[in-house]
Structures are given as C-alpha cells and as structure tokens.
Amino acid sequence: MHLNLDLLERWLSGWSLARGLPLPQREGGGLVVEVGWPEQLRRHVFVDAGAALQACAAQILQHRVFLKAAVDVETLRHALPTRWAIERPRYLMSRATPMAQAAPLPAGYALQSAIEHGAHIIRIVDADGQTAATGGVVLHQGTAIFDRIETAPAHRRKGLASALMHALDAVAGDADRLLVATAEGRALYLSLGWQELAPYSTAVLAEGQPGDD
C-alpha cells in the first residue's frame, strides 16, 4: 500500500466508526475528526509534519486537541513548539492478503463475538468468563481496520494474541488490512506477516501548558 492521505482517511474512518464518531473530514491539507470526549476533543491527522501540520498547530489554543502524523517522534518534536507533548511512538501497519493458517485457541479459553457501533468485536474469555483478550475490526470501503487489540497482563505469553488476530482476520475476508500498533504490538504483527508502512506519532496540547507562546 502507498502511504498518502487517502490511506490515512481509510484508517481514520475505521477508527471513527468503531467508536460511533463522525467520519473524518478533509481540512487544511489533513483530516479532522470531532471526537468530543472529555479527554480528547478533536484529532487532526497529517501525512507528514510539514507546513500543513505546523499551520494547524499554530491555530490551536485549546487543550486536549491531538495532532497525529505518519512521521517518527523526533520529526514531530522538531516540527512543533515545546508546549506540545509528544506521546510514545506507534506504527502504521498493513497486510494485503489473509493470514495463512489459523492459530489454535489455547485450552481453557473460548471466543465470543459481538457488534459494537461499526466494529466486529471478538473477545477471548477464560474459564470464569472473564475477558482475557479483545479486539475489533471495521469493514469500510474495501478496507479492514483492526483496532483496540489487547491482551490482559495475566493472560499474556499464552498465544492468545495470535489466536485473536486470526479470528479477526477471518472477519476481514479479502479486504486490505490496516492497523496502528504500539511498539510492543509491532513485533507480534511483523511475526504474523504484517508490514510496517510508517511510524505514526502523536502530539497533544496538554493541560498545564500555555495555549500560545
């Protein structure tokens, strides 16, 4: 897949649909979603940390507005005034074809599925019915967006993440696949045949920082 604003719009559309939010709109050379949460009012997404992102940042005086770009954290740090806090790095990843062979579900666990907002949610539960791992996938305009994939700490290193990814992959069918990974998740997805497209970094004008220089 070629990284451009169209691809980022596909990712961000799936992210928004999974949360029942409005679809992203194009604005100022990037994308914007009106999130409306107490901890996140809005997010702006750009392909790079160039003039469009910097012009957007210069107009933001409100806290809890997020800037995201497909660049590494150092590039984003250098592009923004020091009032912007840079979060831990993430990675935009893709896969063009279904995963080959399903990973077996470890003994003592079961799969559950549901629909929440626009996402197919799969949970792996333990023998007590407690959620051990969970993740979602949104199908939108020929793209499967994998989202909020997490394994509870007490259930890690048991093969649940691989089993969960294969279960989600079965929902994706023949669609192109996209996700944004943490540094920890990146290694798993690479081992499952996903490819890293680009770093994906976040800045936020946090509480306690002045709204302008």
Automatic annotation (TrEMBL):
Alphabetized UniProt keyword annotations: Transferase
Superkingdom, taxonomy of origin: Bacteria
Gene3D superfamilies the UniProt entry points to: 3.40.630.30
Chain ranges of the N-acetyltransferase domain: 74-212
GO molecular function, one term: acyltransferase activity, transferring groups other than amino-acyl groups
Signal peptide segment: none
Pfam families from the UniProt entry: Acetyltransf_7
InterPro entries listed in its UniProt record: Acyl_CoA_acyltransferase (IPR016181), GNAT_dom (IPR000182)
Keyword Transferase in annotation: yes
PROSITE patterns per UniProt: GNAT
UniProt protein name: GNAT family N-acetyltransferase
Species this chain originates from: Rugamonas rivuli
